[in-house]
Design brief:
Keywords (chains A, B): Amino-acid biosynthesis, Aromatic amino acid biosynthesis, Cobalt, Cytoplasm, Lyase, Metal-binding, NAD, Nucleotide-binding, Zinc
Largest interface: A-B, 30 and 29 residues
CATH topology of the largest domain in chain A: Dehydroquinate synthase-like, alpha domain
Oligomer: homodimer
Strand content of chain A: 15-25%
GO cellular component, one term (chains A, B): cytoplasm
Strand order of the largest sheet of chain A: 1-2-9-6-5-3-4
Mean pLDDT of chain A: 96
InterPro entries (chains A, B): Dehydroquinate_synthase (IPR050071), DHQ_synth_AroB (IPR016037), DHQ_synth_fam (IPR030963), DHQS/DOIS_N (IPR030960), DHQS_C (IPR056179)
Distance between the termini of chain A: 46 Å
Bound molecules: nicotinamide-adenine-dinucleotide, zinc ion
Cofactor (chains A, B): NAD(+); Co(2+); Zn(2+)
Helix content of chain A: 40-55%
Number of strands of chain A: 11
Low-confidence stretches of chain A: none
Function (chains A, B): Catalyzes the conversion of 3-deoxy-D-arabino-heptulosonate 7-phosphate (DAHP) to dehydroquinate (DHQ).
Chain lengths: 364, 364
């Protein structure tokens, strides 16, 4: 049974199962797809999985074309979107045609934006191939690209018609990408799903895909996608509860900014951000020391960083936090855990508490 | 009392009143606007009305910036959208900031698309300055730009927060633009609103703005906007009844295509398309000859064309119709009148009936 993202007439299923890549054709038929399909991917991913998806569609009578974009976050911009539009135009995609994103969050965000805006919206299907895309980017309808001035400044809310997850594709994912995705998985455990947290804790090793039993990995994906689906179903456009997903991201973003998105991956920064947020929660008396050290243990087990590199400028991080603050014209907002499986928002964290959490993040 | 476009939480008012331009500030406050405002316009329109709007906003405490784009349909493309994004970035527009479109359909479609996609959607207000934009383009949430391959291929559905119509601005509108807008007004009379049709018929002269009494013009705007609002409220994304708005547009588009959007304005082509559609309806026994000639009389009164220029290639028009048909993979679709104030869709028009209608459009 697929997980359902419930959004009235925009509801859609998330299929999680090994070999689902081979069933792309059936699944597309199930959701009413027909005619033309444009697969958007990058050279690495397409080399691994392109043929499987292509064949699965062709054999069921779809008219399949491909659009292979250069790999990398630095190509996530409007110029690359124009390349997708060129393909849409050339193959004369129609309202009822489908764009399939076969790739990580970068491909998914771009293909989704193109699907949202070609003919004011055509069918869109996500086949996420990174752990992060599976549990996060592919679910919830945020699409878009970067602008010279900042990340994801241009975009649209546009829900896919389906998300197709084949856990097997993770076997070729670079280990650092896998670990980054695990940061978001841990996040779901802390803010929402204690069963997921327990499942993660019960694993002897978490730091590589191959250490996980197939069934456990599927359960982890299931809990994670279910959590994101539930939250998005309750708050499609980020007016309320969806803010919980920013757990670990306040300080995480500041770290990414200060290190210019170069030193840490997103997941690594989020891991550090979660440790800092946990520390703040402990200082404020929201959270127990014990649960904070369980969180830290889990992060360490994944081999995600638990300390900031020592040469980092704490003042720069605080400045970056305040820049964010200026943008929302208010105080810095944090999502803080109360117990495993529950978190809440506050903008009442005293500066010295933030300072202390940052100090601990370096020193200890 | 404003007209309301009813779309649940996306509902919005259409204000029609002389001098409403001067009240832009109050109206923006009414709909919860605050902080930064970016006015998007073109040099001609901004010269006439920019200062009024600018001052109205500044005096009420808004932080106002402007983005003046080159005039003309040929600039309605992604490159120009990037210019708007540059302004959004430079002035650091926030989620709750507002983009105001001050202009005709070209400005409205572009500013709307930028508002739809900057930060995945910020506030948007339409101040239409052409008759066409007032009664059509500014209402209903279609935004977008052209692509080398075709018109309006890139876009989004994105509703404004308000539409502010000041009939006085029409006094500077070139007469040909005014008449083009009147084609859509007549369309509403034929497909939906008999009172509008009667009101138009009761005017001794229709061919210039200055012939209309202020009150009659306001009523004409009111009926027209009300019609579009009602239809859009029932069918936001063009799955059903909104197709009625294509009355006159099937053959109208074919005429525009064949004459490469150069010889006729959109409204002129639609006027010819309505006459042809009316003729088809008469041939099929859907409509009375008498009402068809009343429609033709009205079109003539506006000084819109009632015959095709003689050197046009009928076969090319039929080809253009069939290209459209290939795109929707079916027969050519027509909206045909049944009586004044009522129309319906059909894809059952025999080719010879179309042929006959086109012959009549040239010869008569
Ligand atoms: N839309 C959302 O809600 C949302 C949420 C989070 C992140 N994002 C976006 O997602 C992007 C990051 O996504 P990501 O972490 O998936 O990175 P990514 O898409 O850049 O992929 C990471 C790398 O892994 C490679 N790769 C992907 N799948 C592979 C596989 N199965 N085997 C081998 N190599 C593979 C890719 O080629 C790439 O080099 C960012 O742009 C971020 O803004 C979006
Ligand atoms: N979004 C929709 O639902 C929708 C519907 C219909 C048409 N459109 C689009 O609208 C566009 C056509 O719009 P339009 O007919 O308003 O043309 P336009 O926006 O090009 O304006 C026509 C001309 O009039 C000038 N002008 C505008 N207002 C003026 C004023 N008050 N005084 C003096 N000059 C003025 C403009 O500078 C321009 O040169 C097309 O791109 C079409 O695709 C959109
Ligand atoms: Zn994240
Ligand atoms: Zn029209």
């Amino acid at each position: 049974m697929p997980i359902i993202v419930s959004l009235d007439e925009r509801s859609y299923p998330i299929y999680i199962s090994p070999q689902s890549l081979h069933r792309t054709g059936e699944l597309l038929i199930d959701i009413g797809g027909k005619g033309k399909v444009l697969i958007v991917s990058n050279p690495v991913i397409f080399r691994h999985y392109g043929e499987i998806v292509f064949t699965a569609l062709i054999t069921l009578g779809f008219e399949v074309q491909t659009c292979i974009l250069p790999a990398g976050e630095r190509y996530k911009n409007l110029k690359t979107i124009e390349r997708i539009y060129q393909h849409c135009a050339q193959y004369r995609l129609e309202r009822r045609s489908t764009i399939i994103a076969l790739g990580g969050g970068v491909i998914g965000d771009m293909a989704g934006f193109a699907a949202a805006t070609w003919l004011r919206g055509i069918n869109f299907v996500q086949i996420p191939t990174t752990l992060l895309a599976m549990v996060d980017a592919a679910i919830g309808g945020k699409t878009g690209v970067n602008h010279a001035q900042g990340k994801n400044l241009i975009g649209a809310f546009y829900q896919p018609k389906a998300v197709v997850i084949d856990p097997n594709v993770l076997q070729t994912l670079p280990v650092r990408e896998y670990r980054s995705g695990m940061a978001e998985v841990i996040k779901y455990g802390v803010i929402w799903e204690p069963e997921l947290f327990n499942l993660l804790e019960s694993q002897p090793q978490l730091s590589q895909y191959r250490y996980l039993a197939t069934q456990d990995l599927e359960k982890i994906l299931y809990f994670s996608c279910q959590t994101k689906a539930t939250i998005v179903s309750q708050d499609e456009r980020e007016g309320g509860i969806r803010a919980l997903l920013n757990y670990g991201h306040t300080i995480g973003h500041a770290i990414e900014t200060v290190t210019q998105y170069r030193y840490y991956t997103h997941g690594e920064a989020v891991a550090l951000g979660m440790i800092a947020a946990g520390d703040i929660a402990v200082q404020l008396g929201w959270w127990s020391k014990d649960e904070q050290s369980r969180q830290k243990q889990l992060i360490a087990n994944v081999k995600l960083p638990i300390q900031l590199k020592p040469d980092i400028d704490l003042e720069a991080i605080k400045l970056a936090l305040n820049w964010d603050k200026k943008v929302v014209q208010g105080a810095v907002r944090f999502i803080l855990p109360k117990k495993i499986g529950q978190a809440a928002m506050t903008d009442q964290v005293p500066p010295d508490v933030i300072h202390q959490a940052l100090i601990c993040l370096i020193a200890q």
